[in-house]
Write a structure and sequence with these properties.
Elements: H1 7-17, H2 22-29, H3 33-41, H4 48-58, H5 62-66, H6 75-78, H7 84-92, H8 107-122, H9 126-129, H10 133-146, H11 149-173, H12 176-193, H13 196-212, H14 216-233, H15 241-260, H16 264-280, E1 286-288, E2 291-293, H17 295-308, H18 312-322, H19 338-354, H20 358-371, H21 373-377, H22 380-392, H23 398-406
């Protein structure tokens, strides 16, 4: 089922539903009435922070404006939605599960399957990941509830990772209620595992959800509290490499929060501190507690922060500055996890479109799709950028029209 509605269309309907004029809505979010009209007509594209501000002012969830969840024709990808009801049931019955028809497999076998799921999650391969989750969670739940001592703690540790995969899947597919439930389960399983770094990681994920709902002050407080807890656990900066990576992830999330509040200097300070943490960790890209951290992720966040604050020219200037010999701009290395790398190209597509570079914008959309098609197809920003490109082209190319159809957008 293709969706021809844009964010501007949904904004106009939502505004009229609340019986607000363009001027009244503009006053609530501190922009001009003409800017609201340009957003509704599609002449301007809203940043993620503005989408959240508009949704908050209208007393709607952001998904009302973004139109999530999206459904469409490609069966291989839309089959991922089919596992959502089963996941809802499993997460509801987390501490009182249905009996299994056969005994659960051994914990090492289940742990290796969680490794596979986690790798798929990091590369944003949600379609193959989705069907693997229900049986793994069902078996792990029984092992965790019935085991003892070290094995029980390990089972809960892996269960926290599996719940994190549900959170990612649900969030990216637009099932935000399930995403929030999964976060509660991550936190529960992390507590049961007794691993302080897993508990801090669970808090980091909750702060990310707060950020997505526009609760910036709450998210900032939570992240600062988590950093203080990390310092308490491993004082005098005698951090393990895993702890350094977790701390770096907290700093990058803090930088994004400050960018959403247009606090340029504070965002820059957190990015600089993240660079110092990366140097302490050996200056390598690492994976710790399901989170990637290192020089590559810092650069991706550096660009994301600039784009978030509307400084698209500076963001592209950074990429040109970092470009290797013979290249026009820096790009994440091929070894970068797919979710991060595709998100980078989605950001760039939006920035290039804002600067009038339609060809560059479409090139980045295609690259994002090549890296992580599931993530790209279901990303709200991809829909808005693609809709804008189709609208701006008098005669869209076959390639652009085909991309729009794949993304579930009906051309007018």
């Amino acid at each position: 089922m293709s969706d021809s509605l844009t964010l501007g269309d949904r904004l106009r309907v939502a505004r009229r539903t609340r019986k607000l004029s363009a001027a009244q809505l503009a006053a609530k979010v501190a922009i001009s009435p003409s800017y609201v009209q340009k957003l509704e007509s599609g002449a301007r594209k809203a940043t993620p922070s503005l989408v959240l501000a508009l949704a908050t002012a209208l007393h709607f969830g952001p998904e009302v404006l973004t139109g999530q969840p999206y459904y469409g024709e490609p069966e291989a990808e839309d089959a991922v939605h089919a596992v959502i009801p089963e996941l809802r049931r499993l997460l509801l019955c987390y501490d009182s599960p249905d009996e299994l028809e056969i005994a659960p497999r051994a914990l090492p076998v289940l742990a290796s399957e969680v490794d596979q799921v986690s790798a798929l999650r990091r590369d944003a391969r949600y379609a193959p990941m989705g069907p693997l989750l229900p049986p793994i969670i069902a078996e792990l739940t029984h092992v965790a509830l019935n085991a003892h001592d070290r094995e029980q703690r390990q089972a809960y540790w892996h269960l926290a990772r599996a719940y994190r995969a549900v959170n990612s899947l649900a969030h990216k597919m637009g099932h935000h209620d399930l995403s929030n439930t999964a976060l509660e389960r991550v936190r529960w399983a992390a507590d049961q595992s007794g691993d302080p770094l897993m508990q801090i990681t669970a808090g980091y994920l909750v702060a990310g959800a707060m950020l997505r709902q526009g609760a910036y002050a709450s998210a900032r407080r939570k992240l600062l509290k988590l950093r203080a807890e990390l310092e308490r656990l491993q004082p005098e900066h005698s951090f393990t490499n895993d702890a350094l990576a977790v701390d770096g992830a907290l700093l990058l999330k803090l930088a994004v929060i400050e960018s959403r509040k247009n606090n340029t200097e504070t965002a820059r300070a957190f990015l600089d501190e993240a660079e110092e943490v990366a140097r302490m960790a050996g200056g390598r890209d690492v994976l710790a507690y399901e989170t990637s951290f290192g020089p590559t992720n810092i650069r991706i966040h550096d660009v994301h922060v600039l784009i978030d604050m509307g400084d698209n020219e500076q963001a592209l200037a950074r990429l040109a500055e970092w470009a290797p010999s013979g290249a026009a701009e820096w790009a994440p290395p091929a070894t970068t996890v797919g979710e991060r790398s595709s998100h980078h190209h989605i950001d760039l597509a939006s920035a290039k479109l804002a600067l009038g570079d339609r060809t560059g914008a479409f090139t980045d959309l295609r690259q994002a799709r090549k890296i992580a098609p599931n993530h790209t197809r279901f990303h709200p920003s991809v829909r808005e950028t693609t809709s804008a490109l189709l609208r701006l082209e008098t005669h869209p190319s076959n390639e652009l029209s085909t991309f729009g159809n794949w993304a579930g957008i009906t051309t007018h």
